[in-house]
Amino acid sequence: MSVLGIDQITYVSDDLPTCRTFFADWGLTLKSEAADVLNFECLNGCRVVVASLDKPGLPPAMEGGPTLREVVWGVESNEDLDRYAAAIAKAPGFFDESVEGARRIGCIDPNGLAVRLQVSRKHAIDIDCGAMNTWNSKARINQPAPIYERATPIEVGHVVFFVTDVLATSAFYRDNFGFVSSDSYPNRGAFMRCAPDGGHHDLFLLQLPSGKRGLNHVAFTVRDIHEVFGGGLHFSRRGWETQLGPGRHPVSSAYFWYFKNPAGGLIEYYADEDQLTADWQPREFEPGPTVFAEWAVDGGLDGNTRRQKNVEGPQGKFLTEKK
């Protein structure tokens, strides 16, 4: 029994028309829309819902304004739901109801976020990804690496929150849902994955000295490093603002590109994170700029020149050609 990953997230926003364009440009498929809600999907069926701030029936907010109101995690079976329901039956806001014809359980976590679980609606997909040639392994023979004109995210890979008590919140996910520690900033940050075997983290909790509570970012998994670049360049051409990237995280090894999100917090393309098993020994790090990013481009790349923003591109036909 284990949680499989994120099945659905629900944002709230005061500007649905902008969000409609934003998430379409991001590479999601709009499945349905109404005056007060937008429903998008990733390639494997992972859902992204954007609702109006004043839509009735939404879970309580952990912070004001645009943000995430709900994270729905997928499980394998109704028997799993029974076990998890027993574990959280006495938690604040316990929830066990039918949603869109399927059972969903949940509660409010110690940070004020609505946490839900359901039998996963995601489906397996078979897609081509760019293979990497290294000195020891030549996985790509007689084949160029891909170039992507835009990204089409596979799923929501992880969520990151500012929390008021990282120890209490991480214990909630560990004790009730079986999450395990991948790495940590002692008493400051917890990188957690749903199960012993999996990607580096599905959830990252960060406690700031200010005590701020709320959304930091939502990360979308793409095929490979080339799609991180291609997706970011397309998104930049569409006029959306980079917060940081592209770059590479030392802790998870993943390549990233972060943008500002009108639905709250930041949004990230990422690929090539570490894959861990039960043999992994969690590490401890002291937070700092070089721990967050091995390298990163401040302000992003221009989608047209393919170079760092606000830096003049080459004028010649070739890089070696002089003016």
TrEMBL record:
Domain VOC: 155-272
Residue ranges of the region described as Disordered: 300-323
InterPro entries linked to this entry: Glyas_Bleomycin-R_OHBP_Dase (IPR029068), Glyas_Fos-R_dOase_dom (IPR004360), VOC_core (IPR037523)
Pfam families: Glyoxalase
Signal peptide: none
This protein's name: VOC family protein
